[in-house]
Amino acid sequence: MVDILDKAMRSHDLDKCEIVRLLSIDDGVQQEVLFKAADETRQQYLGTDVHLRGLIEFSNYCMNDCMYCGIRRGNRTLERYRIQPDEVIKVAAQAYRLGYRTIVLQSGEDGYYTGDVMCYIIRGIKEAADVAITLSIGERSYDDYKRMKEAGADRYLMRFETSNRELYKKLHPRMDFDNRIQCLKDIKSLGYELGSGFLVGLPGQTVEDIADDILLLKELGADMVGIGPFIPHPDTPLRSCNSGSLDMVLKAVAVLRLIMPDINIPATTAVGTSDPFGRQKALKAGANVIMPNVTPLEYRQLYQLYPGKICIGENPQDCRICVEGLIRSVGRTVGTGYGGHNG
């Protein structure tokens, strides 16, 4: 293992077999060596700052039926909501006043928010607040991506969840893997900072699949990568499956930091849901971003991608204070800028 870590820290380039070896480490002492190497790489390239993104989950309607997702179209038990455009702009302005310099607009794939509507929201936020805007709204046309970029969107986050084509097809009815990858390439070509990522612990997933996921992210030139554990939702077909391993998530975060040393890697909310200290552990394994939820409380409990989600009852100001304390507890500092890739 030491020879692989030395190579990774020197060249930031590993092949699939080497990645599999690191992901297969099951000795606690060796895992800590891996995490320490990733943390040192993060310190070297990015310093101590942890960047905050204010997350607005503005609609839980979705046209897709992904087998693992609580807001899938087929979930008839979920109360649906949409936050109207002017309220989205208002919430973003409030987040800016709380000190956030990046706003993430996330929803299911909801056709109500056309390209015109999204451009209206983006322009409205840019007029109201000096923030970077990240969109996480799924597959759109090239023209929509182009228009939203021209309206002022800075970043786009869309996870592919698994690079295994057969597994992707099984978990994403009526969706096309090639189209999703083409969307990611279009987003990158238009000048967005590209965010993507995957789930760990999907039924049928192998360690080799996770290595392929990591290599695909490098091939795509992702600027931000989110990795979280699969957490089964009771209102989905995967309700009886086992949750993903936090250890595997942390190892994947560490490997990503080693081979893509200057990208942004969130300590995801799902990691914090799976373990009370999950976000702290992720920060120590190479992560450098946290995405506190600033969605109005009356909607927040309805955005149920997975059960047991943390922080759904905290108001945005209290959440901000809590997250800043978490960051300082691991010896890190709260970033004050936009926190983009390479500046």
From TrEMBL:
Keywords: 4Fe-4S, Iron, Iron-sulfur, Metal-binding, S-adenosyl-L-methionine. S-adenosyl-L-methionine binds at residues 161, 180. One of its GO terms (molecular function) is metal ion binding. Its cofactor is [4Fe-4S] cluster; [2Fe-2S] cluster. SMART domains: BATS, Elp3. GO terms for biological process: sulfur compound biosynthetic process; water-soluble vitamin biosynthetic process. Binds 1 [4Fe-4S] cluster. The cluster is coordinated with 3 cysteines and an exchangeable S-adenosyl-L-methionine. (3R)-3-methyl-D-ornithine binds at residue 136. Gene3D superfamilies: Aldolase class I. Pfam families: BATS, Radical_SAM. Residues 48-262 form the Radical SAM core domain. [4Fe-4S] cluster binds at residues 62, 66, 69. Coiled coil: none annotated. It comes from the Bacteria. InterPro entries: Aldolase_TIM, BATS_dom, Elp3/MiaA/NifB-like_rSAM, FeFe-hyd_HydE_rSAM, HydE/PylB-like, rSAM, rSAM_sf. This is Radical SAM domain protein. The lineage of its organism: Bacteria, Bacillati, Bacillota, Clostridia, Thermoanaerobacterales.
